[in-house]
Automatic annotation (TrEMBL):
<feature type="domain" description="Nitrogenase/oxidoreductase component 1">
    <location>
        <begin position="46"/>
        <end position="445"/>
    </location>
</feature>
<comment type="pathway">
    <text>Cofactor biosynthesis; Fe-Mo cofactor biosynthesis.</text>
</comment>
<dbReference type="GO" id="GO:0016163">
    <property type="term" value="F:nitrogenase activity"/>
</dbReference>
<dbReference type="InterPro" id="IPR000510">
    <property type="entry name" value="Nase/OxRdtase_comp1"/>
</dbReference>
<dbReference type="InterPro" id="IPR000318">
    <property type="entry name" value="Nase_comp1_CS"/>
</dbReference>
<dbReference type="InterPro" id="IPR005973">
    <property type="entry name" value="NifE"/>
</dbReference>
<comment type="similarity">
    <text>Belongs to the NifD/NifK/NifE/NifN family.</text>
</comment>
<keyword id="KW-0535">Nitrogen fixation</keyword>
<dbReference type="InterPro" id="IPR049939">
    <property type="entry name" value="NifE-like"/>
</dbReference>
<comment type="function">
    <text>This protein may play a role in the biosynthesis of the prosthetic group of nitrogenase (FeMo cofactor).</text>
</comment>
<protein>
    <recommendedName>
        <fullName>Nitrogenase iron-molybdenum cofactor biosynthesis protein NifE</fullName>
    </recommendedName>
</protein>
<dbReference type="GO" id="GO:0065003">
    <property type="term" value="P:protein-containing complex assembly"/>
</dbReference>
<dbReference type="Pfam" id="PF00148">
    <property type="entry name" value="Oxidored_nitro"/>
</dbReference>
Length: 481
């Protein structure tokens, strides 16, 4: 691992936005707050994957992966991050290094690849991602990117986050560091207003940002930049002129918010777009910060008027769903901001959350779960597939909300499942998204298919031995769980 990468990882670990981290001694703080990957373990993504996930939603730049082609295939187009314009971010660029490059070095191939991208596509910038193989052979992507910037007159941004550096969350932060070091503050906006904000850690999954933007437009609040969903390079380069920052997922990009507060004096808060009450709280916080930073105090009155109208409409639209969903139990297997923000939304829909995973959540996330669910909050640090299966089969939960990797556990248990993570095809943000979420849960729970798949086969009804074996299996799974 290069000295520059070690220094950057140490800087990320010295996170001023984390109360738990700052409570440690200086020696303990420098050890870091993330577990290193265990070779061979399914850790949910490497550092490179995390950096690519965090930055790829910047839609008008070319994202070039310097490494074997499999690395680009692993991370490309798997997040449903939508664009309102350029589609170049969906083009998979890779240097596709081979055995000779491993022996002789891949820096020349990287430089040629950057030149080809600039000549063919002319993007406003090129992001270059380091991978395990090219880091191990010593390719200096910072030097190549600096030379390419001088040669071609375009920003070429090195993202030094090889997979072996750590898990996906560390990669999110290393990608954010590249934006801080090479992008933010490099340009000036054409105009500024007292109503300019940045939204950080929002990826516009299935167009969720577009459900929030009309609400802000109605208040006269301008999104100066979104980092990184539906983002534009030149907008992010001017992000230092915003009056306030909203942090959506602190697990991924909190370092951008804290560094911008240190460097430019921009205050930030962490909010959620999920659920009716949390959406309203977020709008109030945005208005409060902007007024404190010089906006007209009348903004608060406009905000309250908008909230009253939108809440009334949303509650009326989900009223019928609430009656059907009342008392239904949900197992929530996700992480980060969704571990608490989605809980609030589910409770508003009349659902009972019997467990929420906190494997990828911060201490602040866990505190918010306790605040929402009370001291008896069932927080799951690391539930095994066998435990999930037993919980569903014993009907301790009526439906599981999770990412795509857990869906087959629910399907095996013949229980409803709904995607709540990045692969989903529905936008759940804002007041409109809340209605969509409740409607999708209702459709999943009351799909007549479940009654059919749970019905025993004719030969099982006729054979009492099979019925006894099935009962014994359930008892064994419960004991193992």
């Amino acid at each position: 691992m290069s000295a520059s990468l070690k220094a950057k990882i140490a800087q990320v670990f010295e996170e001023p936005g984390c109360d738990k981290n700052q409570g440690k001694s200086e020696k303990e703080r420098k050890k870091g707050c993330t577990k290193q990957l265990t070779p061979g373990a399914a850790a949910g993504g490497c550092a490179f994957d995390g950096a690519k996930i965090a930055l790829q939603p910047i839609v008008d730049v070319a994202h070039l992966v310097h490494g074997p082609i499999a690395c680009e295939g692993n991370s490309w187009d798997n997040r449903h991050s939508a664009s309102s314009g350029s589609q170049i971010y969906r083009t998979g660029f890779t240097t596709d290094i081979n055995e000779l490059d491993v022996i002789y070095g891949g820096e020349k191939r990287l430089f040629k690849s950057i030149r080809e991208i600039v000549e063919k596509y002319d993007p406003p910038a090129v992001f270059v991602y380091q991978t395990c193989v090219t880091a191990l052979i010593g390719d200096d992507i910072e030097a190549v990117c600096k030379r390419a910037t001088e040669k071609f007159g375009k920003p070429v941004i090195p993202v030094n986050a090889p997979g072996f550096a750590g898990p996906k969350n560390l990669g999110n932060k290393l990608g954010a560091e590249s934006v801080l070091d090479y992008v933010i503050g490099t340009e000036e906006p054409a105009t500024t207003t007292p109503y300019d904000i940045n939204i950080i850690g929002e990826y516009n999954l299935s167009g969720e940002l577009w459900q929030i933007k009309p609400l802000l437009d109605a208040l006269g609040v301008r999104i100066l930049s979104c980092i990184s969903g539906d983002g534009r390079y030149h907008e992010i380069a001017t992000a230092h002129r915003a009056k306030a920052n909203m942090m959506v997922c602190s697990k991924s990009m909190i370092n951008i918010a804290t560094r911008m507060q240190e460097r430019y004096g921009i205050p930030y808060f962490e909010g959620s777009f999920y659920g009716i009450s949390d959406m309203s709280t977020t709008l109030r916080e945005i208005a409060r910060l902007l007024v404190e930073r010089g906006a007209d105090p009348e903004l608060k009155d406009r905000t309250e008027a908008l909230i009253a109208a939108e809440e009334a409409r949303a509650w009326e639209r989900i009223r019928a769903y609430r009656e059907r969903l009342a008392g239904k139990k949900v197992l929530l297997i996700t992480g980060g901001v969704k571990s608490w923000s989605v809980v609030s939304a589910l409770q508003e829909a009349g659902l009972q959350v019997v467990g929420t995973s906190v494997k990828k959540s911060t201490k602040e996330d866990k505190d918010k779960i306790k605040e929402i669910m009370g001291d008896d909050a069932h927080m799951i640090d690391d539930m095994t597939p066998r435990q999930m299966y037993a919980m569903l089969r014993e009907a301790k939960a009526d439906i599981m909300l999770s990412g795509g990797r857990s869906q087959f556990i629910a399907l095996k248990a013949r229980m409803p499942w709904m995607d709540i993570n990045q692969e989903r095809h529905h936008a759940f943000a804002g007041y409109e998204g809340m209605v969509t979420m409740v409607a999708e849960i209702e459709k999943a729970l009351f799909n007549p298919m479940w009654a059919q798949v749970r019905t025993p086969a004719p030969w099982e009804l006729e054979d009492p031995l099979l019925r006894e074996q099935d009962a014994a299996q359930l008892a064994s799974e419960a004991a193992a769980g």
